[in-house]
Design brief:
Keywords: Membrane, Transmembrane, Transmembrane helix. With 116 residues, the chain is an all-alpha fold. The protein contains six helices and no strands.
């Protein structure tokens, strides 16, 4: 069975790949809607798990705060994948900042897992 940190890191990378607007990843934007919605759903579920299960139980620890931050970013990213028009304009304009912070969280998780 995979450790939950590996699953969370994978979901963060999945969210980054589907939410980015870089020309290198244009093929992902052209995938059928059900595939993109499935990716958004997986990212959303990972964000819910991070925020509502892990973070709420471990808010006084470093990884609890990391789970809260990364979970909120995952939730925002899932909406950016599914339908960005549902977000306020300020969040849509800060897409690059949200994705950069999610990249930082994915690197934090990934490097920690690698060191274990």
């Amino acid at each position: 069975m995979l450790p939950m940190g590996t699953i969370m890191t994978s979901c963060m990378v999945l969210g980054l790949l589907f939410a980015t607007r870089l020309p290198l990843f244009n093929q992902l934007q052209r995938l059928p809607v059900p595939i993109r919605n499935t990716a958004a759903g997986l990212v959303f579920l990972a964000g819910c798990w991070n925020v509502f299960w892990y973070a709420m139980r471990h808010l006084t620890e470093f990884w609890g705060v990391a789970a809260l931050v990364s979970g909120l970013l995952l939730l925002l990213t899932s909406v950016l994948i599914y339908d960005p028009r549902r977000l306020p304009a300020v969040v849509r304009r800060s897409r690059a900042a949200v994705l950069f912070m999610l990249l930082c969280c994915a690197l934090l998780y990934g490097i920690t897992i690698y060191r274990l």
